[in-house]
Write a structure and sequence with these properties.
about 190 residues; alpha+beta; Protein Transport Mog1p, Chain A; 8-stranded antiparallel sheet; two-stranded antiparallel ribbon; 3 helices; 10 strands; about 30% helix
Length: about 190
């Protein structure tokens, strides 16, 4: 009996020391919408919060991997509602579908502004997730650098959630994209 009590007390003490250290090692950088986004999402490190200065337009969280611009992958997660109410969870809400359709139009605007040299939709890709509407593209930067970029869109907790992942156009990058989207999904409460 005394031994069991001793084990329980030691376990509690370890928990009191280890859990706070784990939180310090990967602190929550945002939980504005009830989602506890950490500083690290796999190999992606948080580096900037985008505030669009209008609650309808929401905000974004930017993450990136290490490496040169040709090697690095970037993730942006944007939460917004455009002032609309009752956005349904998932991908079937007509407003989610409309926002998804607008996402490619937004990318095309970047081409006309000169932010990208070109953009091409990929009809076939290994980057897919049934929890999201997914658009895969090849983007050429003004420098000539070619990247694969994917947009994942859904409704969640009354918000539109748009995830954009961009990185090198190779199989390893595709796997990394799917891994980080899975981690983001877990934060969003999607299994």
């Amino acid at each position: 009996m005394f031994r069991k009590l001793k084990v329980i007390v030691v376990a509690m003490l370890i928990g009191l020391v280890v859990l706070p250290l784990m939180t310090i090692a990967n602190p929550v950088i945002d939980n504005h919408n009830g989602f506890a986004f950490k500083e690290m999402m796999g190999p992606f490190k948080f580096y900037r919060k985008l505030d669009f200065n209008d609650s309808r337009l929401g905000y974004g969280l930017n993450y990136k991997t290490a490496g040169s611009s040709a090697e690095r992958s970037l993730v942006t997660v944007i939460f917004y509602d455009l002032g609309l109410k009752d956005i349904e969870n998932g991908v079937k809400d007509a407003r989610v579908i409309k926002q998804f359709e607008n996402a490619f139009k937004d990318v095309r605007i970047f081409v006309t502004r000169g932010n990208y040299r070109s953009v091409k939709i990929l009809k076939q890709s290994t980057v897919k997730d049934d929890n999201y509407l997914v658009l895969n593209m090849i983007i050429t930067a003004p420098s000539g650098l070619t990247l694969k970029s994917s947009i994942f869109m859904r409704g969640q907790n009354g918000k539109f959630v748009k995830i954009r992942v961009s990185g090198p156009n190779n199989e390893e990058s595709d796997k990394l994209m799917l891994k980080v989207v899975k981690e983001i999904s877990l934060v969003l409460g999607i299994k």
